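Board notes, transcribed. Complex of a protein with 6-phosphogluconic acid.
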Amino acid sequence: MRLAVFPSAIDTSRALIHRLVELMSEKPDKTFNIAVSGGNTPSLMFDLWANEYMDITSWNRMKIFWVDERCVPPEDADSNYGMMRQLLLDVAPIPYENVFRIRGEARPEQEAVRYSELVKRQLPEKHGWPEFDIVLLGAGDDGHTSSIFPGQEDLLTSDAVYAVSTHPDSGQKRIALTGYPIMNARRVIFLITGKSKAEVVEDMCNSGDAGPAAYIAHHAPHVELYLDKKAASCHEVKSKEKL
Ligand code: 6PG
């Protein structure tokens, strides 16, 4: 696990954009299959990416998929696709045909199957699972990642690529990339900022059993954590910063 800690959320977002651009420039002939998460944290990064890094990004070599989606229409304020479309996809010249959204407005069970098949068709296979180049994850205060919440750990070892999950408080249905295809990615990168995430980050650094985010952080072979100082403020995390 590689930890990268920055002074602020903006610095962390900028560093992650640089990292993605760097990874893409190392393989100039390759198209990158990237799965993105939603929630609040990546919105800053998407905004910065569209506004400050337009010229250095090979937009036409990115295929965009989603880690998870809330089961709402794309116009809904809760839509992960809607958020990214507004901040980045409508601004940057990413070819329309390279954007593969999860249809949050469709029937969840059917959409999980449709999107699993789509991803299997689009991506190369490794170890029997589709292989993303990069899976960008966040983590919730409760230790969830993708939309795999504590208590829904069966999704970490599901046979499906995407499955339906339920938000434990709101009851909102979600469609979530499951554990094996996340761990099968060439790189799993967590973007986590803010004081409220400090305990989760500490758990992720110290235990593989403390919830879905910690499980992925410990079981995926190539994990990078992009953190701001507040998220990395727990003692145990600080002592690992130099690794
Ligand atoms: C979502 C996600 C989810 C997110 C975490 C963190 O749709 O909510 O993709 O896994 O990464 O919940 O969310 P915040 O950035 O909003 O704290």
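The first helix runs from residue 9 to 26. Residues 37-41, 67-68, 70, 80, 138-140, 145-147 surround 6-phosphogluconic acid (CB under 6 Å).
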